[in-house]
Amino acid sequence: xxxxxxxxxxxxxxxxxxxxxxxxxxxxxxxxxxxxxxxxxxxxxxxxxxxxxxxxxxxxxxxxxxxxxxxxxxxxxxxxxxxxxxxxxxxxxxxxxxxxxxxxxxxxxxxxxxxxxxxxxxxxxxxxxxxxxxxxxxxxxxxxxxxxxxxxxxxxxxxxxxxxxxxxxxxxxxxxxxxxxxxxxxxxxxxxxxxxxxxxxxxxxxxxxxxxxxxxxxxxxxxxxxxxxxxxxxxxxxxxxxxxxxxxxxxxxxxxxxxxxxxxxxxxxxxxxxxxxxxxxxxxxxxxxxxxxxxxxxxxxxxxxxxxxxxxxxxxxxxxxxxxxxxxxxxxxxxxxxxxxxxxxxxxxxxxxxxxxxxxxxxxxxxxxxxxxxxxxxxxxxxxxxxxxxxxxxxxxxxxxxxxxxxxxxxxxxxxxxxxxxxxxxxxxxxxxxxxxxxxxxxxxxxxxxxxxxxxxxxxxxxxxxxxxxxxxxxxxxxxxxxxxxxxx
Amino acid sequence: xxxxxxxxxxxxxxxxxxxxxxxxxxxxxxxxxxxxxxxxxxxxxxxxxxxxxxxxxxxxxxxxxxxxxxxxxxxxxxxxxxxxxxxxxxxxxxxxxxxxxxxxxxxxxxxxxxxxxxxxxxxxxxxxxxxxxxxxxxxxxxxxxxxxxxxxxxxxxxxxxxxxxxxxxxxxxxxxxxxxxxxxxxxxxxxxxxxxxxxxxxxxxxxxxxxxxxxxxxxxxxxxxxxxxxxxxxxxxxxxxxxxxxxxxxxxxxxxxxxxxxxxxxxxxxxxxxxxxxxxxxxxxxxxxxxxxxxxxxxxxxxxxxxxxxxxxxxxxxxxxxxxxxxxxxxxxxxxxxxxxxxxxxxxxxxxxxxxxxxxxxxxxxxxxxxxxxxxxxxxxxxxxxxxxxxxxxxxxxxxxxxxxxxxxxxxxxxxxxxxxxxxxxxxxxxxxxxxxxxxxxx
Lengths: 489, 443
Hints:
The complex is a heterodimer of chains A (489) and B (443).
Chain A: H1 2-13, E1 29-31, H2 38-47, H3 52-66, E2 90-92, H4 106-115, H5 121-124, E3 133-139, E4 142-146, H6 149-154, E5 158-161, H7 162-168, H8 170-176, H9 187-195, E6 200-204, E7 213-219, E8 230-235, E9 240-248, E10 256-258, E11 261-266, E12 271-279, E13 291-301, E14 307-314, E15 319-322, E16 325-328, E17 334-343, E18 348-351, E19 354-357, E20 363-373, E21 377-386, E22 394-404, E23 409-418, E24 424-433, H10 436-444, H11 449-460, H12 462-465, H13 470-483
Parallel strand pairs in A: 3-7, 6-8, 7-9, 8-11, 9-12, 10-13, 11-13, 12-14, 13-15, 13-16, 14-17, 15-18, 16-19, 17-20, 18-21, 19-21, 20-22, 21-23, 22-24
Antiparallel strand pairs in A: 1-2, 3-4, 5-6
Chain B: H1 13-23, H2 34-44, H3 59-62, H4 75-81, E1 93-98, E2 101-102, E3 116-120, H5 121-127, H6 148-156, E4 161-165, E5 175-180, E6 186-196, E7 201-209, E8 216-226, E9 231-239, E10 245-254, E11 259-267, E12 271-280, E13 285-294, E14 299-308, E15 314-323, E16 328-337, E17 345-354, E18 360-369, E19 375-383, H7 387-395, H8 400-416, H9 422-438
Parallel strand pairs in B: 1-5, 4-6, 5-7, 6-8, 7-9, 8-10, 9-11, 10-12, 11-13, 12-14, 13-15, 14-16, 15-17, 16-18, 17-19
Antiparallel strand pairs in B: 1-2, 3-4
Helix pairs in contact in B: 2-6, 7-8, 8-9
């Protein structure tokens, strides 16, 4: 009940036009020329002191990208993107290698504070004692500070920016980068491969259970800058890691393009849990502005009995195009996808997952909760594919959609393909509005209509919220409340 | 008028054949505006996997050829092709099409009752100006309008039936529209029009058959309007040669408070695609069910687009398939609820059972919802026959080889049980059991 109260308070406190996280930080930044070309890619590569092979990799991706066409199959509509009207690289002006937090630009630290994301662990945990969270904070495109590295390195864990990994651990990067999401996987992934600015790299050695939740907070800050994150997480045999990703962005009038790529590799008996709370600027109530979020996320369960679990809470962005997927290659490997997608105003969401069953007795579980309000369109699009050799594979999908108001849409587009008789594939979906009975009951118990809706929605998404690490669950619940503001009553 | 396929792409053999055939087309039915229909087809060519509605049924790669449109058969040849009287028990009136051509001598259209008229499209066109220019006009504003298979029938059809049931009239006996083939390798294109007036009721049995071994590409398009408060029962039985192709489309507009009860059973064809495009008015009711039995190296696709336009309508879709050998079954179903269609109640189920190691099933049940006060759901499953069910039956003393037959029968029984007429139900069940028995005993 306390959490529900919080949601309602949030709804009251925040007007939809006054996006809570819509502020800008005034930091000088250094950026590439506007537009895209080989020179820009060389510029990015040089800025990051990358090895020659990396530059070649980028240039190759760029050449392939030029021959590709933008995908149009998703149920999202937006004006043609002018890829020459975007800055592909912006970095906060570098002070040479901050040694500690004291050396970090105080403006930057203040930004994080405003977001409620202090770098210091205790604060991050919002009162939860004992746990530790390391934050590899990404401010625009460059990792500014990495904490807890020492403690992690005691366990042999590598947690650093991907550009640093390229220099310090080139063998690992070379081996795994692009091995889950190939360079030419899709239009945006290829673009990302050419121009990615930075991101996180995580390596968990054999048998290590990462002692803390790893976390990255993304910010898009510089005007008209595309943000092209690249994340690579490798969990060696028998290891475990939980990774948190959370996003907020300042209010903007112009659309901003974000095309991230996340690659996860889980070896034998390894487990990766990847949680996202996405709350980028969704545009104003008339659909002006907002982030275009075209993301490719994929996990590869390479070893037997490995497990990859995606949990996402999507409340922001004008347009979301995102399908965190699992390739279940190892025998007995597991893939999970838990999602809450809330759309309001003029937001368009086309999101879901892919579960590709290749190994024997692989299993996947998909729970998706979509909530549409205002004038938004919310689509679940997912694929479950069982290969001929995947004996005994199991897959279960449950997609529920909730509609609030007369002008929104909720759509479900699942693809089920099974080529093995010993596999069992199940899918179920429902779409409905909040039932009058439930509302009436809540109101008769003294809740006002808005509180009642908040209570019912929180119940609707509970299955997924429970999958989030606790500190994220609290934030996510607040976000859902804020996102639905103005849709009730 | 652009009658050629888009020039920037190499045509497939089948596309070339269709293009050549269109140039030579028999002008027996004039004033049809076939050109517009063919141009619509030609603009896209045969659909392929990147065309979303054909994602699982890539006709561009699957159709190696497109046989010539069939010539009118001789009466003797037609009589020899007539085949078994599957629906004899219900004593239906009968309209016979052989290789796509109506054969009056084999048809019996008497005794359908007052207010029921049946005529061929050719005859109707001579007297009824409203039918002219039919080629370009199929269910405007619906998914059927731009469908390439619909465009093909519209461009090529040789004849068809016009069935009209006047307001308040009831058909005295069912009408069987029987489509058979002489077995020549040819394409047959038939297009029927059905108009059921306000408060009227009609029962139609559609039947398709071709001799095993023949390479027949059979296309059928049925356009139906069911006026307010009318009731239609429609059963479609498809039993084509395992070397042939069957492309069926039913485009139906169901009026306010009207009801359509539709069942389709597909057994056969190397490539089968059955499409139902339905729009529902206020408080309309659609029941559609399908049983697909696929074996050998065949591909059977059932595609539904159900659009709730008016408020308070109900739709129930249940499609089941049993897939054996190296066959593939495809189900694509979409329920669309338009903004005005509040209080829609839609429920869709798609279930496939895989009977062999190399069988495949693909399903895409979609919900597309633009109104908030609705209750819509879909469920889909793909699996083999449940071992615990087999075990249970065996523990009750049923021999192992018999259990599988019983369970397939029961699985598809959910589809056939809903056929209200006992004679028709028995006929369809008989076909299904014949298919199951032909598999032989495979414990």
